[in-house]
Specification:
Oligomer: single chain
Number of strands: 11
Structural class: alpha/beta
CATH architecture of the largest domain: 3-Layer(aba) Sandwich
CATH class of the largest domain: Alpha Beta
Length: 277
């Protein structure tokens, strides 16, 4: 009972990753409102009222839910956070951009709801999964395999390359991000590649699109002027990973997202391996 006084009982999640994490922790009963973009877990949409998009929120509806905590993500939700804070609502906005920061966010949320021990256990399982993937890739490289160059496109017009956690997961999965110098930029506007010729020049072996909820169109990528000689285009190595699986900085990216990245990279690596006589 005393613990109930110390931890939030009515939580609004303005983004999907904290919703998914609270469900994994068995604490979904605390959630009273979610983002309209939430698809993980599927049942959340049926069980919880949707009170926000990503850049906007129904402030009055959130206030009606009488939350004792609102969880948000990134500077992009600063205006929503400010509006709620002015109404006397407790708001916690995380700004995780790397794999380590995602794990840190997950631990902090678990601790907030009195589930630190379970949170650490689930985090350890996810870390082990990443370690297993890295070990498999390392063994292949030690045997002479080459890692593919990967261009991850977060948006098509203008071209926006991978955010930091995605770039790191590409590396864990077995590929090398074509634009690692841009991955450290937290803002999408700073990861814009204005000249498509610079992408062509880096000649990715694999192109992966995750266009922030918009359907990836590989045929449109292949038809871009001057891209016909890019290895990924010539060899049909254009793939989509759905945004909820990779662009939400939470459990999905560390499990389903990286698994899909690894499957794509592994298929490419195995296809390059010398065939026995």
């Amino acid at each position: 009972m005393f613990l109930d006084l110390l931890s939030p009982q009515r939580i609004v999640c303005l983004t999907e990753e904290t919703t998914e994490w609270l469900y994994l922790l068995g604490q979904e009963s605390r959630i009273v409102g979610i983002s309209g973009y939430t698809v993980r877990p599927k049942r959340a949409r049926a069980e919880k009222p949707r009170v926000s998009a990503f850049l906007s929120a129904k402030i009055d509806k959130i206030l009606d839910l009488k939350p004792d905590c609102v969880l948000g993500f990134s500077d992009l939700q600063a205006d929503i956070a400010a509006a709620l804070i002015r109404q006397g609502i407790q708001v916690t906005v995380f700004n995780q951009r790397s794999v380590v920061e995602i794990f840190a966010m997950m631990y902090q949320v678990a601790a907030m709801v009195g589930q630190a021990e379970l949170g650490l256990s689930l985090i350890a399982d996810m870390k082990q999964g990443l370690n297993n993937i890295q070990a498999e890739v390392a063994a292949l490289v030690a045997a002479g395999a080459r890692r593919p160059r990967v261009y991850f496109e977060e948006w098509d017009v203008p071209h926006i390359s991978a955010i930091r956690w995605v770039s790191e997961l590409v590396g864990i999965a077995g590929g090398d991000d074509c634009f690692p110098e841009l991955a450290v930029e937290s803002l999408g506007k700073n990861r814009i590649i204005a000249d498509g010729a610079s992408i062509v020049a880096r000649n990715p072996d694999i192109i992966i699109g995750s266009w922030c909820g918009k359907k990836f169109r590989p045929e449109m990528v292949a038809a871009r002027s001057g891209w016909e000689d890019v290895n990924a285009v010539k060899n049909g190595q254009l793939f989509e990973i759905k945004s909820p699986d990779i662009l939400q900085p939470g459990p999905a990216a560390l499990t389903d997202g990286v698994a899909q990245l690894h499957r794509i990279c592994l298929q490419w690596i195995q296809a390059q391996a010398p065939q026995p006589c």
